[in-house]
Amino acid sequence: MSYQVGNIKSIPFVEVNIEEIEALAKECIRISKDDWDSREISWNFNSSPLLNGCKTLEESFIKWANKRLLELFNLHNHEERINELFILAYQVQTDFVKDIALQDISILDDELIKTNLDSKIQILQNINQFKKCCCTTKLISYFCWVFFWAIQIE
Q: What residues are paired with 130 via a beta bridge?
C-alpha cells in the first residue's frame, strides 16, 4: 500500500472549534463515568447513591432521580451539540441531523424505562418512568455487601 500526495490531499480536513468539542466530550465522559461508578460493579464504587442525606427513602429516591435526570439531559444536549458542530464543519446539513433519541443515551439503562420516550418533559412529569424495584434491589444489595464486608473485617 502506498500513499501519494494526491491521496493525502483528498482527505477532507476542516477547521473546527476543538476547544468546545473537547470541553463537551470531557463533560460527557465525566457524566458517563459518574453513572458507571454509582454501580457496585465499578472498581470506584463507594456507596449507594440512595444514601444521600435525606430522611426518608422516598426523598432520597426523588433527589437521586432528579440528579440523574439532569445528567441524562446534559449528556443528551452535549452529544447533540457535538453532532451539530461536526455537521456544520463538514457542511453536511442535508445528509445528517444532530438529533439523538433519548432512548439512545446509554446512562440509566437499568433504572429508567426508555421505551416510547418522546421528550424530556414526559420524563419530568412522570417520575414513575424509573424502575423503583431495580433501585430498591440495588440498595438492598449494597446493604448486604456492607454487612458481609463488615463481618469479613472482624
A: 112
